[in-house]
Design brief:
The protein has about 280 residues and is an alpha+beta fold. It folds into two domains: about 90 residues, no CATH class; about 130 residues, no CATH class. The chain has eleven helices and ten strands. The strands form four sheets. The protein has a three-stranded antiparallel β-sheet with strand order 2-1-7, with no helix packed on it. Strands 6-5-10 form a three-stranded antiparallel β-sheet, covered by helices on one side. Strand 1 and strand 2 form a beta hairpin.
């Protein structure tokens, strides 16, 4: 389950404009549809792939924004209450006693005698102990403060081209994220035909003809994988499959370490590669 608690305040590094984002305490990556290129349809955790745009016109990744901490969050406190629901305050036992004349008289004696009598006094007398229980007290958000800070602006897929075009102005990580999302955007028109084919394999395999722009963008993503410290051979192989380089795709899939997390996807990619299908695949 995707759950939030309060908001996190972030700021644009270019102009220091402030925005708010939900403060996620847990996320659920389940979606109605998942695709081989990373597209998620009707996802239970839709954060716009982590890319935002500021009112100054600059784009940024959430990880690159200035983190200003929690804007405001429910104040949660655990307290003890008695059977009537009243809060219980713990006061040292000897402070609840009436003064004992014998102790007051002993003030004239030495320190050791005083300490001995106080200990004896505390432990010999019984104190009535009320039954208590611990409860959680939660204060509501300060709505007035929250409303003054605008929500971070989610970016449309088609705007990714602007980041790619002006790549010198942005970090390599942001440009790569933009390329991957732009790849999803360019693949969108091929999704319905391949879904129909998956429902009825007697149909011919749908055409997948990518433009020069699409090809160049995918190759840039491919080259970035080789600069990564830990290569994901499944993702790399699927990029080769999408480019129609099926032999290289199979080589990558052979190097991939199988696990319960990638087994099902890997089998689909292998089947599509052997059938020479380059289209994005529902997984």
């Amino acid at each position: 389950m995707t759950m939030t608690r309060g908001y996190r305040q972030i700021a644009c590094r270019n102009c220091l404009a402030r925005y708010k984002e939900p403060n996620y305490t847990s996320i659920n990556l389940t979606a109605a549809e998942r695709w081989s290129d990373g597209r998620r349809v009707r996802s239970l955790f839709d954060n716009g792939y982590g890319i935002r745009v500021c009112k100054c016109g600059k784009y940024y990744r959430l990880h690159e924004a200035i983190d200003m901490g929690l804007l405001t969050a429910p104040q949660i406190q655990e307290i003890e209450v008695d059977e009537q629901g009243d809060q219980v305050y713990h006061i040292p036992a000897f402070l609840l006693r009436q003064a004992d004349d014998s102790i007051m008289d002993s003030l004239k004696s030495d320190t050791k005698s005083i300490v001995k009598k106080i200990k004896s006094f505390i432990f010999k007398k019984n104190i009535e102990v009320k039954r208590t229980k611990k409860v959680i007290v939660q204060q509501p958000l300060n709505a007035e403060i929250v409303e003054k800070i605008p929500n971070a602006i989610v970016v449309r897929d088609s705007e990714m081209y602007e980041i790619i075009r002006d790549k010198e102005e942005y970090s390599d990580a942001l440009v790569l994220a933009a390329r991957e999302r732009y790849r999803m955007h360019l693949n969108d028109k091929y999704r319905e035909p391949i879904k129909d084919y998956c429902k009825d394999r007697s149909r011919p395999i749908p055409d997948y003809e990518i433009s020069d722009e699409h090809l160049a963008n995918t190759k840039e993503i491919l080259s970035s994988y080789f600069n990564s410290e830990n290569i994901d051979w499944v993702d790399l192989g699927d990029l080769y499959r999408e480019l129609g380089e099926f032999a290289k795709a199979l080589e990558c899939f052979e190097k991939a370490k199988r696990s319960e997390h990638n087994e099902a996807d890997l089998e689909k990619f292998l089947r599509a590669t052997n059938q020479k299908i380059s289209n994005p695949l529902p997984i």
